């Protein structure tokens, strides 16, 4: 597993801060945001992309979303021992890493050059820097993985779909190993203004660390964040033969569409409920077997309410017994990277027997009346965990992960 997040630049740091309830949200530092309604974000701190590229020119030729993906990929690939020459059949090792928005910073910079200096000053690398599939392509180039390679783009469900489709390819015999996840670097003037004009973002600028408030009565939108998160998936017998540590097992994957609205969730969370039900069906598990749910939980009024309704529909009375938390309360919303980072949280919860909290849950919304593990982490035996990811366009994805003994 590999993570670069607003509250941690590796899995160990990220997990420690998540358990401690430390927020990565702060005033925007990468540009002057004083004119914007929302002036806060989850930016990556103290990040140097150069160690993650063999050729320093490639850093200058690529967008920040690729830098974050490559950093997370390096951590995951090294942990899995895939950086050793000849470790696997390269033609059966693939990559599916997506980005919801891609090279937004590149687009802004190059459009400014076009307007001020003319078309001949636009970089010849503009297009490959922008396009969403470039993270997946460059990870494959970096490590020589010649198997299935593409990018899923499904907004905030991107990383979960990338992991799920990688799982499916391995199950179907198309690959032995897949590198999967997502990255996003949309904390730019255009990104902040675009989401802001949708009235999707929190404007609690005076209290950045308290701005992301999933399931709280006083929530006023999500906090825009950047990040990268990658996992290595491997066919079981192949991993056992290599003798590598198995962290967990992907048990089920469900997906659906709301078919309702561009940005609003479907009424009653029906689409989200179908994705959860399908993931449990694939895993051949009853709802009562789930010990922890990492919620999509962005902090938008409609989204949190609909997700709560969906959990109640799927889990029935067990909905009131299963602990649920939203780690977006600490990271903000990393968009395409969120699903993979939150799957890492599920796996670490299984491995440690500790569930991270939902911070800032000071005044629970009466319509969000489940156990969201407020304020402090909780020791809790977790054998099976569920991870929810829902994106603009009505895209829903759910992953079920279990312990491996």
From TrEMBL:
The keyword Transport does not apply. Pathway: Lipid metabolism; fatty acid biosynthesis. Residues 1-403 form the Ketosynthase family 3 (KS3) domain. Keywords: Acyltransferase, Fatty acid biosynthesis, Fatty acid metabolism, Lipid biosynthesis, Lipid metabolism, Transferase. Gene3D superfamilies: 3.40.47.10. Belongs to the thiolase-like superfamily. Beta-ketoacyl-ACP synthases family. This is 3-oxoacyl-[acyl-carrier-protein] synthase 2. It comes from Candidatus Methylacidithermus pantelleriae. The gene is fabF.
